[in-house]
Structures are given as structure tokens and as C-alpha cells.
Amino acid sequence: MDFFDEVGPAALGSRLRRLTDTMTSQAAEVYDLYHLPFEPRWFPVFCTVAQEPGRHVGDIAERIGQTHAAVSQVVKDLAKHDLVVVQRGEADQRRSVVALSEKGAALWPALQQQTADVRQATEALLAETRHNLWLAIEEMEYALSRQSLGSRVKALRDERVTDEVRLLDYTPAHQPDFKRLNVEWIERYFRVEAADLKALDYPDEYILQRGGRILLAEYGGQVVGTCALLKMDDTSYELAKMAVSPTAQGLGIGFQLGQAAITQARALGARRLYLESNTKLKPALSLYHKLGFRKTVAGQPSPYERCNIQMELLLTS
Amino acid sequence: MDFFDEVGPAALGSRLRRLTDTMTSQAAEVYDLYHLPFEPRWFPVFCTVAQEPGRHVGDIAERIGQTHAAVSQVVKDLAKHDLVVVQRGEADQRRSVVALSEKGAALWPALQQQTADVRQATEALLAETRHNLWLAIEEMEYALSRQSLGSRVKALRDERVTDEVRLLDYTPAHQPDFKRLNVEWIERYFRVEAADLKALDYPDEYILQRGGRILLAEYGGQVVGTCALLKMDDTSYELAKMAVSPTAQGLGIGFQLGQAAITQARALGARRLYLESNTKLKPALSLYHKLGFRKTVAGQPSPYERCNIQMELLLTS
DNA sequence: TTATTATTTGTAAGTACTTACATAAATACT
DNA sequence: AGTATTTATGTAAGTACTTACAAATAATAA
Questions:
Q1: Interchain proximity A137–B133, CB inside 8 Å
Q2: Same domain for A194 and A281?
Q3: In whole angstroms, what is the distance from residue A208 CA to residue A214 CA?
Q4: Do A20 and B13 touch (CB under 8 A)?
């Protein structure tokens, strides 16, 4: 049984390549058939030059949807076979202006005839099938230009992960995970400070007994994310100790933790949430922004060396 | 305006390649998304090995529709990344039997999850379009396996050429063309003999006045083919001087000339057509066969050195 | 058993593109 | 006018395959 039938559209790319390769080699056969000393890959460039002489490399590239590098190489090949002549641009000396040579012009009618035959054969071929490949390609290119495969897959996965992530309340048994996840990311970018260790080693004393909360996220049977609320005063809490394991990053787990923390803070009667971070941590900042946090103008001094930005979220209503 | 819209399906190959390239690069993005240290091109091989361990290189290649060389390279890569282990076959020492390594086995569940997500996203993508790309590829592969693009184009062109070829009756003005075309092919394979020159220089005396006929084929304003009937006796004619210019070969012009000659011979009252050729000339022999000629068992001596095969066609009815 | 042929694999080089980088000419900015 | 930036191009190297070739082992014929 064919591998592709089993795996299905997940291997769409591989399958497309296979068809592309057969099409390309069969196209080469067609040129042999007409005894034309011509390679299929020259076609788009040659055709453009024949129809509109005086265009330059970048211009041609844009028209046929390839890179200038590809066109440059093809033009070099065509020139080597005396099918085109290349001149410097008159007004702009950087440009390589391409035109058909005598030999190229002589070849053009035969190539046009051949193209007409190929076109007719291909159209008959397409008419033979129930699902039109040409139109299908067009639609697929459009669909992918609107939203890439990556973001489509990501959307699907995020949806699935959201269902599979469990938010846990902190128990003393979670202390090692709580410490591990935080130390992990701090060491990746900075060094662990004394203030960190106090809170990470004794969360009960330094966070919970002072009126704070700790949230954990479990995914695939493992604790992969943490987040804490530190009580500042009756209506202000600090969002801190936000950490997500690198293997689980990009799954929207930080966002879920953040949202849960905000809900929790509201329940505790908070009117304002505050946090400190570092401008180096781009993904974290964009997460905080997505949660509604905005940069504060005048900041208090921070106990952490690594912090150079402060943000807050006002919980009105 | 897009080049492909203008040129149309003639550039199907180029366009397929463009889509293949975007699909491939977007697939690579998906692997990044999952933090999998994995390249898209490994997928078919890895998947096969995971599902059915103990298969060898050639076996895998056949299953996924690629060459053994491609599989060999991918396996080498996978082994370098410790994702598979390769062992010599037990019974057959030539075989490279592939199985997942521990690291590969650990990766497999994540890859399966990812594949499921991609599959779902792709299926949604395909459902979005009116013309289903997956099915279109399938149909196109089938259509091309039944008849290649080359032979489809050839069939179309032959039809067109048949309309454009004109068969002319010989006039003395044609003698130079008649000689040129024959000398051209004889010199390509053999050397011109005295017997040739007599008939080619004085066709009137050696062919027509002895009751024979000469036919010429004109295509694109030029004489590109010749063929002659030499009278042997009242009911027997020899088909000779069959020549088609190399630039016009493969267009079915020889077949048209042959058919016209047979019709002519019938009109002259022939019951039997005879010809001499050489077994080196494969295309010519297949043409004669297609016209109905069959090899004769006992042959008369030929005046030409180059002839080592004789064929005949009996014109009953 | 030995010689020949076929099978299995690996390696090198080619294909039709791409991205990344380098260089020269043109344009914009002080 | 002189410098910085942008634009146009060419070249090199990479990609995911292919074909072509070479070498080793297995199967078959003599």
C-alpha cells in the first residue's frame, strides 16, 4: 500500500515534490521531442524576454515569481548558449538588460509552437481529472498566503493544549518543581540572586503566609509552569516567579497562568497588579502586554538587579 | 499580472515547484514550533522505521516511493543524530537494517502528536478549497503514469503535422532536394555507393522512365522527406530512397510517405512491395513494420553493400 | 566449485531552485 | 560636495531530491 495513502495529507509536501519531479523530467522529454536545444528551467525567463525585450534581471525575477539569483543564473546560461545578449542599462549602469540574440529570436517561433502544443496537452490532461490541479494549486497558494501552515497548526495545537493543561494550587510537595522551573530560566539569562533563593526555598514563609498565592500548570503529567502573586498591600499584588519550561514554551501556558493569576488577584480584592522584568526578555514582555500590563512611568527601586522595566495592570470594575 | 496566469498550464511544472518550495519551508516552521530536532525530509523514512522496525534501506525506499540513494542519505543523517541504529542484515550481509534508537523511540510520540496536528490542519486547509489539491495530485500521478506528458504532446503534434504536411509529385526541379535528403542519411550511417549516385543524379532515367514513382513531403515550406517506388516487374515494386530530414524526424512524416507509396503502388497494379534495409536502422525497421512489411526468409542478392535485411508486403485484395 | 549475473547499498555529482553574502552603482541626506 | 543608505546584481553554498557509478555480497548457471 502506498505510503502517502496511509499518512495522508501530512505528507503533502513530500508528495508535491514527487509530482514536481515527474513533471519536470517529462517536460524535459518534450523538449527532446522537438529537438530544441533548450532546458525547461529557461522557459519563464526566455519567454518574458521574448515578449518584452529590454527588461532587466530584477524586473524579470519579479514577473516570474523567482529570485533575482535564479534569473541571474538562467540568464548566464542562456547567454552562454547564445540565446540572449546582456547589456548594461543605459540610464542605470547596475542593470543587466536582457534581449534575445539572433539565435534566440530564430528559436522563438518553434518554442511558441511547442508551448502551444504543451498547453493544449496539459489542458486536455487537466480536463481528464475530476479535481483540477491547476486551480487547486492556485487556491492553495492563496490559502497559504493568507495564513501559513505553521500558524494554522499552532492554532490547532493551542486549542488542544488549553484543554490538556491543568492549573494546580500549590502544596508543599510542589516546592522542588517551583524552584527548578524558576532557577532554570533565571540561569539561562542572568544569575540567581539571594532574594530569589529565599522565596524559592521557602515559598510558604515568604509568599503564602504573607497573603500571596502560587499557581502551577501541569501538562502531560509534568509541572511545566509556575506563577506567584506577592501581596504588596491590601489592594496591590505583584505578579512574579512566572516561569514556563522551555519544552512547553509557545503553547500559551504562560497566558493561561497569567489569566488565572489575574482572576485570583481580583478574588483577593486587588485593584492593581504590578510586575518587574527585563527588556531583554522579549517574549515575556509581549506576554505581559497581551495580558493587559502596561509600562509604568516612575518606578520604585527593585530588590532584583536584573529588573529594568516595571509594568502594571489596573483592575477597575 | 502573474506570469503563470498568462502562460497557463504550460508552466505547470514551474508552478508546482513554487508551491512545493513554500510547502517545504512552511513544514520546517512547524517542526520549529514543536521544538523537535527534526527535519521534514526525514519524516517518511522515520515514520516507516517507527511503524515497522527491521526494514532495510531498499525496502523503505520502495515503500515511500523514493530512491534507495535518498533513503541511504536520510538514514545516515538520522544515525548521525542518534535517532536510528543501523545493523547489517542477519541473513543477508548486504542489507542495512534500520531500527529506532532509544532517543528516536522517545521522540516518536511527540512526532505522532505533531503529525496528527498537521494532518488536521492540512485537512482543514484542503476543505477550504474548491479544488482538492491532494486528490488532484493523485489523479495527475495516475494520468501521467498511464500516458506521459511527452507522448500526449507528441500525439497532438503529430495530428497537427499531418494536416500541415503536403505530399508532392516529383518534378525535375526536385532533383537537388531528392539527392540531398538521401545523401544526408546515407552518409550519417554508411558511405554513398555508385548505385546510389546513378538513381539520385538521374532519377528521371533510372526511376520514372522505368515505370517507377517518386514522392516528396513538404513541411513548413521545405521538402523534408522523399520516397520512391522502383518497378521490378508488372506486379512487384521496390520501396526505396526513403529519407526524412533529421529536423523533421519523429513527426510521422515517414509513415505518411510510406502509406502514400503503398496507395500509389496499388494504383499501379502492384501485388507485392519489397524493400532492403539494414538491421542497424532500428527506427526505419519499426516504421516498415508499422506499414505492414515483414521480413522475407530467402533473399535475393542486393546491389547495395549496406543492405542485410529484406522485407516485403503482399497487397492482397 | 567456479564464473557469471543480479541485488543491495553507499557515494558523487547534478538539478532547479533557494538563502546569504559581497560588490558596485544610484540616490538621499547633511 | 561628501557620506550614508538603498538598489541591482552576481557568486557561493545549501536543499531535497535525482541519476550514475562503484563496490560488496548473494544467487544462479556451467
A1: yes
A2: yes
A3: 8
A4: yes
Last residue of a domain, one of A146, A178, A207: A146
Note the pTM of the prediction, 2 decimals: 0.72
CATH number at residue A49: 1.10.10.10
CB pairs under 8 A between A and B: 240
User: What is the dihedral sign for C-alpha A31, A34, A38, A42?
Assistant: negative
Q: What is the pLDDT along chain A (317 residues), one digit of tens a residue?
A: 567 777 766 678 888 888 888 888 888 888 888 888 888 889 899 999 999 888 999 999 998 888 999 999 999 999 999 999 999 888 888 899 999 999 999 999 888 888 888 888 888 888 888 888 888 888 888 888 888 888 888 888 888 888 888 898 888 999 999 999 999 888 888 888 888 888 899 998 899 999 999 999 999 888 999 999 999 998 999 999 999 998 888 788 999 999 999 999 999 999 999 998 888 888 888 899 999 999 887 666 766 777 888 898 998 76
A43 closest CA partner among A32, A57, A55, A31: A31
Which H helix or E strand runs over B98? Answer: strand B96-100
Do A33 and B250 meet the contact criterion of CB atoms below 8 Å apart?
A: yes
Q: Is A15 within 8 Å of B137 (Cβ atoms)?
A: yes
> Pick from B85, B113, B146: which residue ends a domain?
B146
Hey, are the CB atoms on B137 and A16 less than 8 Å from each other?
yes
Q: What distance in Å separates the CA atoms of residue A153 and residue B230, rounded to the nearest whole number?
A: 76
Nucleic strand D near CB of residue A87 (< 7 Å): no
Q: Note the CA–C1' distance, B93 to C2, in angstroms.
A: 21
- Chain B positions touching A154 (Cβ under 8 A) are 33
Contact B144, B120 (CB under 8 A): no
- Cell numbers representing residue A291 in the block: 495580558
**A109 and A233, same structural domain?**
no
* Ramachandran angles phi, psi of B236, nearest 5°: -125, 135
A310 shares its domain with A162: yes
- Domain residues for B201? 157-314
Q: Which residues on adjacent β-strands are paired with residue A128? A: none
Q: Tell me which of A2, A6, A23, A247 to substitute to probe the interface with B (most B C-beta atoms closer than 10 Å).
A: A23
Which is it for strands B309-314 and B272-277: parallel, antiparallel or unpaired? antiparallel
Nearest Cα residue to B231 out of B179, B270, B277, B178:
B270
Domain containing residue A271: CATH number: 3.40.630.30
The CA–CA distances, whole Å, from A88 to A47, A57, B20 equal 20, 11, 34
Residue A27: all three cell numbers together: 517536460
Among A185, A188, A246, A239, residue whose Cα is nearest residue A215: A239
* Count of CB atoms situated within 10 Å of the CB of A33: 18
How many angstroms separate the CA atoms of A7 and B44, rounded?
A: 9
Phi, psi for residue A211 in degrees, rounded to 5: 95, 10
Tell me what percent of chain B is helix, strand and coil, each rounded to the nearest 5.
55, 20, 25
Give the nucleotide with minimal C1' distance to the Cα of A86. Answer: D9
Rounded Cα distance between B24 and A99, Å, is: 34
Dihedral of the CA atoms A269, A272, A273, A274 (nearest 10)? -140
Give A236-298 as a DSSP string: EEEEEEEEE-GGGTTSSHHHHHHHHHHHHHHHTT-SEEEEEE-TT-HHHHHHHHHHT-EE-SS
Biggest alpha carbon–alpha carbon distance for chain B: 90
